[in-house]
Prior knowledge:
It is found in: Cytoplasm. By secondary structure, the protein is of the alpha/beta class.
Amino acid sequence: xxxxxxxxxxxxxxxxxxxxxxxxxxxxxxxxxxxxxxxxxxxxxxxxxxxxxxxxxxxxxxxxxxxxxxxxxxxxxxxxxxxxxxxxxxxxxxxxxxxxxxxxxxxxxxxxxxxxxxxxxxxxxxxxxxxxxxxxxxxxxxxxxxxxxxxxxxxxxxxxxxxxxxxxxxxxxxxxxxxxxxxxxxxxxxxxxxxxxxxxxx
Length: 202
């Protein structure tokens, strides 16, 4: 399966990956978002649900037949073996569907959004360039709390399971600073979009 020229977009929880991806999409990039793929796989009648039910029983299954994400989050944080089982089911399906969507793109380049891109060498090999959305950790925590209502210790536990800010920045080819208001993103995205168009045409 061939793929177009691909930019991997990543950042810690609450960094603003979705806002950045929306701006690249508005400029004509194809966006393939692994979080959206995961949500589709774990929706009612999603392709991952039979295997998840077989592996975990009805405990983390919501009444509508979708994955109860809060229940699953609590389960995998308490049990590394459960996390491994979950990833063993979801990750191959996400990789397969994201590869299909990338190959189907008819745009100059693809923006592949992967929250744990830096943590996974496999994802990195599928990207020609890596763009990191960055902001201070205190701002990440505040944004996640405002969005999801999680307590600060829960947000910090999620962040601790991800690459550190320093590790992401060290891996980056390009960095988008999202510490300010959303309006500051447009000029940064404009500049990178122009750069990516040029690189993709080489």
